[in-house]
Amino acid sequence: MNLIEKILAAHTAVEIVQPGDIVDVAIDTRVARDFGGANVVKNLIEYGLEPQDVSKTFFTFDCNPGGSDQKYAANQHFCRQYAREKGIRVYDINAGIGTHLAIDKGLIWPGGTFVSTDSHANIMGAIGAFGQGMGDQDIAAVWASGKAWFKVPPSVKLTLTGKRPDNVSAKDVVLNLLHRFGANSLLGYSVEMAGPAAAELTLDERITIASMGTEMGAITLLFTPTPAVLAELEKRSGKRFRSVRADAGAVYKQEIEVDVSTFVPMVAKPGHPHDDIAIEAVKKTKIDSAFIGCCTNGRMEDLRVAADILKGHTVAPGVVLKIVPATDEIWQQALQEGLIRIFKDAGALVSHAGCAGCAAGQVGQNGPGEITLSTGNRNFAGKQGKGSVYLASPAVVTASAVAGYITSPDDLPEKPATFSPQGLQLGERRPKQQPATAPLELTGRVWLIPIDDIDTDMIYHNRYLTITDIAEMAQYTFDNLAGFENFAKAAQPGDIVLTGKNFGAGSSRQQAVDCFKALGVALIMAESFGAIYERNAINAALPILSYPRTLLADLDLQNHDTITVNLESGKIRNRRTGKIAQVPPFSEVQMAIYKRGGLLNR
Predict the structure, then answer these.
(1) What single-letter DSSP state applies at residue 529?
(2) Domain extents for the chain?
(3) pTM above 0.90, yes or no
(4) Which CATH superfamily is domain 441-595 in?
C-alpha cells in the first residue's frame, strides 16, 4: 500500500484498503476551533451526545484570538463552559494556531489521524499524518463516536528532483506547483511527496507546502518523515515517534516528476492562489500593507528570514507591516532571539499568535482599494478584507515592505518608494447646497423612554463603528438598549424621543447622533444630556431640548401621544389633551447652526 492507504488501514478494522473503499476510520485527535466550535457543541447537546474520549478531544481558539468580535467572544465563552463541564483541554486565545500546536505538542504524530473545523487540517501531511477539515456535524459525530467514514482517495506520487535554487523558498515551491497543477488537476487525490528535493525539506518548510494542499484541491500532501524531522518533533514535543512510509512497490494512480531547479520566486495575483506569476512580472507594484504569518508562514524559519532582511532597515513610509507568529512558543523564541526587537525597531506591528488576517479575525485585514502582499495561503476576493491581496514568500513580503513595492531581497532600492497625493481619491466632495428651510415647529409621535444615563453604546453599539454610510446606521439605533431593541423597526419619520437624565453619556461617537438623523427622528428631549453628546447633536443640526421633570405631568403625556414643539419659543402642546408646557428654547448658537443645516455648512 502507499502512504495514505497504510495510514487509513491502520485505523480501520480491515488490513488492506484500496482507492474507492469507504471505511470507518478511528480518529486519534479531534479538534474544534472558535470558528465552528460552538456549533459542534450545540449539535452534541441537541442530539444528546457525549465526547467519546476527552483525552483526544481539544478546542483551539485561533481564528479570533483577541475576541474582538462579539459573536466570536460569545462562542469562545460558550465552548469554555462546555470544556469545563466535560474536562476538555482548551488551547485558548494565547496559544496560537491549532494545527501547529498539534504538531509541536505531539497531539498528532506520523501515521496518525486528525480532524478539525479547519480546511487546512491536512497540514498534518507535513509529518506523514492524515489530517482533514470537516464541518460542524462531522466533527460532532467524531467527538461522539471517535471515528468517521472516509472514501479512500487515489494517490499521486509527486517526485521532486533537481537542486532547488538558493532564492527559491518553500513558499515559492508550492506557488510553482500551483502554477503547474492549478486548483483542480489534483482534485481529490492524496499526493505523496517524494524525491531528493522533498527529503531535504525541513519541518517548517514541509508545513508551508502541506498547508497549501487545500488550495491545490488535494486531499492531502503527504511527506515521509526523515530522521531530521523526527528529531525536530521530539525536540518540540518531548515525545519520540516512528517514521511511516509507503511499501516498496506501492501502487499509484499516477507518478509525476518535477524538476525544482527550474523553479523561480513567484507571486500569486489577487483573487486566486493558483494564478501565479514570476516575481519579475509584477516588480515595482506599489503596496499599502504587508503581512507575515498564517499557518503557511508563521514559523521560526519564516521569522528569521524576515528579521535578517529588516535588520538595519525600516518599513517604507505609508506601508504597514504586520507580523504574527504561528504559536506562542514561536513568539517567545522570537523574543529570546531578539527578533521581536528587530521587528519593532523596523516599524512593524507584531501581534500575539494566531491565524491573523487569513481568518479576518485578527490583524491582517485590508480596506477597499488597499494593496496587500501576504504570506497567507489564500487571497480570494474578500478573504482578508475589501482590498487586493498578492501572495508571496516571507523574504519577498519583507523586502517589499522595506521597498514600498513588490520586489525581492536582492533588489532593494537605496530609498523606498513613497506615495504621491496626485490623483488620490479620498472621497467625493459634497456639492455646495443651500440648506432647506429648517422648520421651527415640529409635530410628531412621542416615544417615552423613562431611563436615565442611556449611554452611547446603548444608543449605537461599538460593534457598528466601522460603518461610515449614515443611511446604514439607522437600523442599529437603540439595538443595545434593553426593551427597545426593535425601536429602529417601529420608529417612523418625525417621531420624538423623550427620555431621562444624562442622555448620551459615554463616548464621543458621532454615530449615536447620526443614527437618529438617518432614522428620521425629528427631536430628542431629555432632562439632561451628556456634554459631548449635546455638542455633537447641536453641530449635526439634530434638534435636542432639555425639559424639567414636571413636563410629563404638565402635559399629561402618555406614550405615543402626538405633540407640537416650537423650537424658537419652547412651547409644547399635547395634541390629545390640549395641555401646554414650556421648556428652554434653542439658544442663539444652536438656532444658527440648525438653520444652516449643520456646523460645516457655511
Answers:
(1) B
(2) 3-262, 266-411, 441-595
(3) no
(4) Aconitase, domain 4 (3.20.19.10)
